[in-house]
Amino acid sequence: MASKKIELDHKDMVHDSAIDYYGKRLATASSDSTVKIVNIGAATAPSQVLATLSGHYGPVWRVAWAHPKYGTILASCGYDGRVIIWKEDARGNWSQAHVFPDHKSSVNSIAWAPWTFVLPVHDDGRISILTMRPDGGWDTGTIERAHPVGATAISWAPATALGSLAGSGELVCLQARLWRV
Fold this sequence. Notes:
The protein is mainly beta. The chain has a single domain (14-180), classed as YVTN repeat-like/Quinoprotein amine dehydrogenase (Methylamine Dehydrogenase, Chain H, 7 Propeller). It is 0% helix and 46% strand. Strand 10 and strand 11 (127-132) form a beta hairpin.
């Protein structure tokens, strides 16, 4: 497999990257407080920074793409305790669709569920459950003391029919602890 050099133009360390559903774009999270969207689609064409997303007030730890059936949506989280939902319009312009600024500590990880949930994980051990409503608004829930010493990673159970894994609800893995939400 041939390698391809990708120019990101970040001014500081890159902490995370995620390739979109189609393998055409890369999102990166950096200590320079930005998220970059990079075109990586064609194997022979040079990569190109399509957008620089600013809105965090400190290092950005993670980025995660939503499933494309919800549009072109990306979530980012960072040291500033913010979770930002970014949305691309039809002309390729990115904007903040929603900002969750009420976290009191660093948000270390995020993951999209197959059903439009975002799970941010906090330094203080809480998990937030952010759910998109049909009207485009968001509801927020919290699992307090999900991990007493904080957590740095989270993932959802595989995308299967609701309740088919082990009864009702969805399983979430938080650093080797399972939670049903």
